[in-house]
Amino acid sequence: MNDVDEGEDRLSLLMVRVRRLREIEAGNPSFKRLEKVARALSEEDSSRGIWLRPLPKSTVCDLINGKSKKLPDWLLLRTVVDVCHLIATKSGIPIDPLEDLTREFAVLWREAKEDEGVRASAAKHGRKPPEAFARDEQQIGGDVLEPAPGERSSWKPSATTQRVPLDWGRLGNLRLKRAESGDANAAYELAVLLACEACSKGDSDKEKREARHWRFLAAYWNGRAIGVIAAAAEFQLQGRQLVKAARALAREYAEAGKPSSAYFCRAMRQAEASLQAQPAAVPDNEASEPAPVPGTTVLWSSARAVRT
Hints:
Elements (H helix, E strand, L loop, with lengths): L9 H16 L5 H16 L10 H8 L9 H17 L7 H27 L5 H10 L29 H12 L3 H16 L5 H21 L14 H16 L5 H16 L7 H4 L21
C-alpha cells in the first residue's frame, strides 16, 4: 500500500477504501481476473440496463496502486465494486451486501468530488488548497490525527474510512507509516491493536460495521507480518489468543519503560473485557493478571514471559 500524506484528503481515503475492498474483502484477486470478470459482468448486466465499463489491467492497476492522482469517474468505481463483490461471493468470502457497498462508495466518491471542486476553485483564485492548510497545521505542532492544543479539525472521516482510529493520535500514524514501509513488527503490532479496538465495539449497527472494518484491517496487517514475526502465525482476531498477544506487547513496552505501553495496556483491557462478556471466559489466573503501568518495572510469570 502506498503512503498517504498526513494531510489526508478525501480522494486519499477513497483510494485506501478501494485497496481494502480488493486486497482484503475480495481476497486479493489479480488484475487479470478483475479484467476478465468485469468483461463477463458487463455483458450480463447490459441486457438488464445496468451500465458497467471494462477494467483493463493497466487502468485498474493504476487506480488501486495510487499511480493516478485524479478522481476516477463513477462508472469505473462502480464497476470495481461490483466485480470485487461478485468475486468475494463466488469465492465464499463474507462481504457486505452489494447495495450497502455501492451506497458507501457513492458517499466517498461524492465527498472526493467536492474536494476536487474546492481545489480547482482554490487554484483558479490563487488560494491554498485544503491539504496545504493541513501541512501548515503540522508545522505548528498539530496534524489530522492529533491537533495541537486548542485546535479543532474542521472535518473528520467516518470510522469505516479510517486506517487507524483518530484517537490513537501519533502512535497510530507512526505505526501505520512504518507498517506501510515494510516494517513487519509495526504491522503485527497494528494488527493486535486494531483487533482489540474491534473488541471494544458494541451491538449497534454502526459499531458492528466499525468492528468489521477494524478486523478486516487487522487481518490484512497480520498477513504482512506472517513469515517474519513468529507470533503472527498464532494471531486471532478475538478470543483468548488475542488477549495473550496484547498482554505480551503491553509487557514488552512496559518493561522497556516506553510511554506507548499505555496504548497496549488499553488494548489488552479491551480484549479481556470482550472475552469476559462471552460464555467461555478467560480462566481466573489469566484474566486477573495485572496490566503493566507505563514507566514501572513489572515482574511476570516466566511461563508467560516468552514471546513466540
